Amino acid sequence: WLAGVLGFIVLPSALGISLGISEAYMWVLVKTLEWATIRLQKGVKKPQPQMPQTPTANGIIERDETPMEKEIARLHRADFEFSHIFYFCRKGFEAIVEDEVTQRFSSEELLSWNLLTRTNVNFHYISLRLTVVWVIGVIVRYCFLLPLRFTLAAIGITSMIVGTTVVGQLPNGSVKNYLSEVVHLTCSRILVRALSGTIHYHNKENRPQKGGICVANHTSPIDAIILTNDGCYAMVGQVHGGLMGVIQRATVKACPHVWFERSEIKDRHLVTKRLREHVADKSKLPILIFPEGTCINNTSVMMFKKGSFEIGGTIYPVAIKYDPQFGDAFWNSSKYNIVSYLLRIMTSWAIVCNVWYLPPMVRKEDEDAVQFANRVRSAIARQGGLTELPWDGGLKRAKVKDTFKEEQQKNYSKMLVRNGSIG
């Protein structure tokens, strides 16, 4: 009976490996993208405006990075002139046209064409050769890769539901835990191959251990699959309906995932209590948490919610950075539903990313939960080459709180008083 279960698991795994992305495919893809980029640069007859070469090349305006405090001090070294107000007008226009928060919730712009979107600005004719290559790419992605990936995804999801349901019937013990890990790892690897995933894991000696908490930056719903491709985790999240609900109910039978009802997720004390009980059991899998609470566009790391850092235990930070040249992994949930999003990534060339396991971190005696969360966030941002922002990702759907506005007004008035503008 057990042999039959393992056979059901191993067969899809072999299929996923045999049909997965190969080194030759990635080599051809890289060379094709390089050729297309060179042709794009040489074939354009009219000079095109160059995008600013900055770490956040997603912007549409070029900002003066001088801190406001220094600029105010410089302005008030001399007598007041009417032209001084233009500095504040410019800052206001910059904030209205493009603030540093909302641009993190739109897809990252590229400096070169990746044969997915026609250009990084708008559609326009470039050359016959590039157009032919683009049309061939559309045929390959939609007529060959999409059906193949859809088949693998169906195999992976079905294997996950059936495998975890069968393993969940076994009595608790080492055999059940082992088979549960085999099912989760195998099905996750099939799903990664359904995305033509090419993942590079670094510093594997720092992989999260049982009884710990794994925290990572959040770009896409597939972040969890990317990580479970290399190890097993206990997931934390809200109970869903539909296909996702079926998967949740099946997986929790074989693995101690922590699913909350909608009414429970709002009770922070109840959530903390259940997570502490999980971490206290050193035989249970590490918890996987995305403290940002929403998807950010692969350029930045925003504020980490402190709840994950009040639980106690060892924190294992993980930095995830996708290569946007091959496909856009960011999920803009305000613009695309989950079906449209999955169609976009399954018709991309590939999902290529780097995953760095950082050394484990523990909370210091003189740190509160917020300070600890900021320290972990800074480590992830540095390793992933991401911009660190202090803003709450909840601003993606909510308005700025009045307290934030008042804090900025107070800081501004202090600058003016300090520099002798008000007396």
TrEMBL record:
InterPro entries given in the database record: LPCAT1-like, Plipid/glycerol_acylTrfase
Entry's family note: Belongs to the 1-acyl-sn-glycerol-3-phosphate acyltransferase family.
CDD domains, per database record: LPLAT_LPCAT1-like (cd07991)
Lipid biosynthesis found in the keyword field: yes
Species assigned in the record: Edolisoma coerulescens
Subcellular location: Endoplasmic reticulum membrane
Keywords in alphabetical order: Acyltransferase, Endoplasmic reticulum, Lipid biosynthesis, Lipid metabolism, Membrane, Phospholipid biosynthesis, Phospholipid metabolism, Signal, Transferase, Transmembrane, Transmembrane helix
Highest taxon above the source species: Eukaryota
GO CC terms: endoplasmic reticulum membrane
Pathway: Glycerolipid metabolism; triacylglycerol biosynthesis; Phospholipid metabolism; CDP-diacylglycerol biosynthesis; CDP-diacylglycerol from sn-glycerol 3-phosphate: step 1/3; Lipid metabolism
Stretches of the chain forming a coiled coil according to its record: none
Keyword Ribosomal protein tagged: no
A GO molecular-function annotation: glycerol-3-phosphate O-acyltransferase activity
Transmembrane regions: 123-144
Signal peptide: 1-16
UniProt protein name: GPAT3 acyltransferase
Phospholipid/glycerol acyltransferase domain span: 212-323
PANTHER family reported in the protein's UniProt record: GLYCEROL-3-PHOSPHATE ACYLTRANSFERASE 3 (PTHR23063:SF10), PHOSPHOLIPID ACYLTRANSFERASE (PTHR23063)
GO annotation, biological process: phospholipid biosynthetic process; triglyceride biosynthetic process
Pfam families: Acyltransferase
Membrane-protein topology: Multi-pass membrane protein
